Amino acid sequence: MLEKVHDLFRLRTSPVIFFISAAIITVFVVVTLIIPEDMGNFWGTGSGWLYENLGWFYVSGVTIFLIFLLWMAVGRFGLMRLGDDHERPEHSDISWFGMLFAAGIGTILMFWAVAEPAYHFDTPPRGEQLGIQGGTEEAAREAMGFTLYHFGLHTWTIFTLPGLAFAYFIYKRKLPPRVSSIFQPILGDGIHGPIGKAIDVFAIVGTIFGVAVSIGLGTMQIHAGLAQLVGLPDVWWAFIVIIGVVTLVATVSSVLGVERGIKKLSNFNIWTAIALLVFILVTGPTVYLLRGMFEWTGVYLGLLPEVAWWNDTLSDTGWQEGWTIFYWAWTIAWAPFVGIFIARISRGRTVRQFVTGVLGLPTLFTIIWFGVWGTGVFDIELNGEGGLVDSVVEDGVETALFSFLAEFPLATLTSAVAIMLVGIFFITSMDSCSLVLDDMCNGFEGKAPLHQRAFWTIAIGTIAAILLTATGEGGLEALQNVALVFGLPFFILGYFIMFNLSRAMREDAGEIKHLRTRRWLQTLPPEEFERRMEENDDTLANAVVAPDYAEGTQPETAPEVEHAEQPPVVTEYRIRTGENPVVDPAAPDSGDVPPRR
To answer: pTM for the complete prediction?
Structure first.
């Protein structure tokens, strides 16, 4: 049945994975439209239980993933290439860096650039426990420390771990670009069976829900900007138009592929974002912004060891539920898509290049990005007329960026540029997602019909549009809760990734051989050697006075080391006993050395 429908629509994919995924998504949308409140309560209960009981699991888990990645980068597997041993990277470092932000995170950086520092400045995360008052200098440090924690190393850890696994299994072991391929060391060819297909269906559905949340947030921000710029009304058709235009451009970009679509848009967007950042830096209090950027780097690094394990155990204020735990649970829901996309653009790099690049470069950019925007917020509040934070808190976080730009020259122009940036990040998120979803369904890269690839872009846009307009913010909230619940299995998957990746690398690279070393003899003081000689102590067969080693124990590639000339007492002992200290080279772990007769 599924095969006939598959052929009827001229598809080239896995019918089971494709149609079951599409059916689950369709059922969710229809049921949410019919009973939005009940659906919201159902998934809200699930996410509430997750917040209350597994928050510690998320917080500690991401830190464990980060430690594992650093170990992989500095260890012996760091030199392994993600591909054949002779392969080299397909994309330049600049293009690669730009495309790292194409998979969704660029939209998030635009959305929270002003909003999160402003919000935490008004209500410090640990204000109640540490006695920090909102709107103070200490509140500014707390705000920037947690903002960088949320968008720095830990967020990129969530993307880097699956990305590394996908890159290894897809390009080193030549497995299909699917989540099930990560389980190959355990399942073997079972990755093509019912368990493997179930894993892939779950991954596709969770990814669509997670990305749809990002699309919903991006739409709200574009609408807020256009409302301020051209007076766009707050009506349902305005959201439809925004999503429709972005979906159309994203569909064209996905059909063009990575080289002609996503890569060109990503390069343009990253340079435009940098230009906007430089504009704020130059037209604002430049020295103040630079000083703040460097200071927040130190605040972040100083705070990181503490908050990496902080679970709000004693105070239990519930603050983490709406921020850190939400971020981690939501981000992990669409990490498979981001991971596969990053793997696809990273083929040919070494494990060390991959980990340090995907963790380090975006984190460095994040520090600069939030350092400038965040310090600008504090300058307006502490040194200027203020009012920005109140505007963000009262009018909503989606208005934060444009309220900030209104404090700078050429506000209309910069707001238009910001809207364009959000829109293009929006587009690259959708088209890169559709590209990855198509590959996950197909089990191979490329050769898919264009209308099949376009289906995923249109589906994501349609889901976001229906839920945002037909059910309002309640539908978006329901979708957020679904993404959070779906993220839990993917978080558990992270531990399987660490096990399977380590196992696969050991199988492919082999275990470390026993490192054979030159065996040195026991060195004794001259007087002790004489005492043992009088006592006829057998251990003298392995002892010397001048430091020396046993002939025949040196490795073949070791440099020559001349034997030391022993004092008369040692020579006398050897003449008397006729013994020479030797070690059998074939027994490197042997204990006492047998005498030569």
So the answer is: 0.83
